[in-house]
Amino acid sequence: MLTLLVFLSLVYGLDGADVVLSCSLIEEGGGMGGMMGGAMFKRTPATLVFRDLVGNEGLSPELVTPYNPPETPNPEDLIFELMLPSIQIPNADLLLHADCNEQEVVCEISRYVPRGADMDSLPAHFIGSIQLEGGGISLTLVLQTLHSETTQSDAQPLMQSKLNLPLSQSATLLTEVVFVVFSRVPSIVASIGGDVMLDCGFRQKESVPGQDVALEWRLQHRGNGRKILDMKAKEMETEIGSDVFVDRENTSTEADLLVRDGNASLTLRTLQVSDEGTYICTVGSGDFQTQQIVQLHITQPPRITLSEEKLTFPNRTPQRLSCHCHRYYPLDVQVEWFSQAPSTEESVSLSKDSSLSSHRQHSDGTFSVSSHLTLIPDKHPPGTVVTCRVSHPALETATDATLTVEEPEPDTAFWTISLMLLISVVFLYQAFKGGVF
């Protein structure tokens, strides 16, 4: 599905907050992905209303304004009214604060067919995908239509023109959540060698005791994909039975937590660069199956060293200084050079005079690089501070490695010869004075 940015507006009900999301109904377009004028998907504006999402006991009555549907019912409007609570949606209250936090919400809705059903069967089902950009929550909801009061009376119900489904008296399509797969941390950053838990869970309105729960985790990265874990579990009389396939060492999930708590999270230990990518958590239970995506980003900050411990210019000879960045990931790294003379308060950039080696990739997937700079004594008198500054995504702020130009050490050979000559002169003088010659 294509991403569509939406705006979030909030209104408040007596028992909770009504959240109104501008969404898009996604349908197959029957085209060739834009070839010959066709379109792969058709998108129709739609609205998703969460009724009484969370309690708001602290709100004064003056601020309470429930959602008001259009005064004139329009059968062409696509308004999905989600009656809550049907099942608990973890962290859904974060949607309330998205507008204040300047976060955008992505909302898409499409038709969904449960196992063993067909497209025209009733009740109808839809799948709603909601992501809070910038992190926080990602939801995949299976919505099931409800009978409205008009369908239970003798009055002819108003039908939605596109979906041909009966609407409520306020021209909304009444629905409830019957299945949801969610992630409270859809994007996570971790370091090489560390451990991480990829958050995924599910909730189901109705389940049969002893019902199988299927869980699959797949990794997609740079066009390649593989199955990491495949589990089927169910509650037996005294224990949780499970059948598990794992294709990565130091990988685990808990069958009892999956069945009893709806916890489908995956734990990865001793992370490597090869673990980076898009993880797809697919959960199936009863007639429903859907998935959630978790992004794992691997980082490793560079270790920075200079080629010299001290900097001098013996015999006023130019010196080459190297700044080495060791074993970092990802590849993005920036190396800058600066100098600050003892008589000035501001540093001067030397980056244009530097050269960069080619990146070296190690067997563990990390990289190293070196930057070289030739320094001239006339431009860098003693007391000058030379700085190598390295920026990398794994570093919160740029890291500096510095050296201060020192006075050259005296030439010991010169002074040794001078001392020997002086001793010789004194000896000859004493000998001459004593009449040896």
How would you concisely characterize the structure shown here?
This protein has helices spanning 255-261, 412-433; strands spanning 5-6, 8-12, 17-28, 41-50, 79-82, 105-112, 125-132, 138-145, 173-183, 187-191, 196-198, 201-204, 213-221, 224-235, 240-246, 251-252, 266-268, 277-285, 288-299, 303-306, 319-328, 334-340, 348-349, 355-356, 360-361, 367-375, 385-391, 399-404.
Cα-to-Cα separation, first versus last residue = 109 Å
Kindly state the percentage of residues in helix: under 10%
Structure class: mainly beta
Main β-sheet, spatial strand arrangement: 3-4-5-9-8-7-6
Largest sheet properties: 7 strands, mixed, barrel
| Strand/helix succession | EEEEEEEEEEEEEEEEHEEEEEEEEEEEEH
Q: How big is the Rg?
A: 35 Å
How many β-strands, per DSSP?
A: 28
Taken as a percent bin, the fraction of beta residues is 35-45%
Question: Could you explain how this protein is built, in words?
Answer:
This protein is mainly β and 437 residues long. 7% of the residues lie in helices and 42% in strands. It is built from 2 helices and 28 strands. The protein has helices spanning 255-261, 412-433, and strands at 5-6, 8-12, 17-28, 41-50, 79-82, 105-112, 125-132, 138-145, 173-183, 187-191, 196-198, 201-204, 213-221, 224-235, 240-246, 251-252, 266-268, 277-285, 288-299, 303-306, 319-328, 334-340, 348-349, 355-356, 360-361, 367-375, 385-391, 399-404. Strands 3-4-5-9-8-7-6 form a 7-stranded mixed barrel. A hairpin with a 7-residue loop joins strand 27 (385-391) and strand 28 (399-404). The longest helix is centred in the last third of the chain and has 22 residues, at 412-433. It is elongated and about 140 Å long. The N and C termini lie far apart (109 Å). Mean pLDDT is 84; it is low at 1-14, 32-37 and 55-64.
